[in-house]
């Protein structure tokens, strides 16, 4: 794109008073016209965040953020988003820019959930998110809409087991895991409904992937009772790859 074309595009986008939600609604409606991108009840809505590096200081909500993936601070924008994914497709539903000292990522997660439910009318029955969003407020919002959720659980999250508060990884050392094959891969799994700090009694899952030296153990927590929670949580990987490709 030439500099003149880029300048004209920036003027077109920046000098008009766009209604963000209305434009997004039009995009959702268009996507629902095609079988390849239409909503699926069996799909998932992921809640996550991503960093976009920037150089300018006048860019909206730009700041200095610690990127855990890179292990260093970057100058850029921190983008929270919801993402629809299923067996046939995947695309963003809503996006929010995080601004330090203005609101929390938990606040943004609640906004994204309300947008997906009230505006987008997304039929997906299950939300997926990492341990950063495993907090009372977004979970209560999801359950208010009578939806399910699956989240990663931090290894040091307090959980009541054997009448004592223990770390999740401490429980891992105390229990016996049972081998089970999931999507042609072998796991050792333990699951039990326990009282999780701030969340109440929820289903806790410890899954140890056999012959996986990089990330052998997953700690999950969910309100779902079906047996496919590990397979379902795997859909989060599609969200990660989408945003890596889009960057």
Outline the fold blueprint:
Blueprint: H1 3-14, H2 20-31, E1 44-53, E2 63-67, E3 72-85, E4 90-98, H3 105-119, E5 126-129, H4 136-144, E6 148-152, E7 158-161, E8 164-167, H5 168-174, E9 178-182, E10 185-196, E11 200-209, E12 217-222, H6 229-233, H7 236-246
Helix pairs in contact: 3-4
Folded structure, characterized:
This protein has helices spanning 3-14, 20-31, 105-119, 136-144, 168-174, 229-233, 236-246, and strands at 44-53, 63-67, 72-85, 90-98, 126-129, 148-152, 158-161, 164-167, 178-182, 185-196, 200-209, 217-222. It is of the alpha+beta class and 247 residues long. Helix 3 runs parallel beside helix 4. It is globular and about 65 Å long. The two termini are 18 Å apart. The mean pLDDT is 88.
Question: Tags for this entry?
Answer:
alpha+beta, Transposase Inhibitor Protein From Tn5, Chain A, domain 1, 12-stranded mixed beta sheet, 7 helices
Number of strands: 12
Task: Tell me roughly what share of residues is in helical segments.
Answer: 25-40%
Helix and strand succession? HHEEEEHEHEEEHEEEEHH
Q: Catalogue the unreliable spans.
A: none
In angstroms, what is the radius of gyration?
20 Å
- Report the end-to-end length measured between terminal Cα atoms: 18 Å
Described by the principal axes of the CA atoms, the overall outline is: globular
Mean pLDDT: 88
Strand content: 35-45%
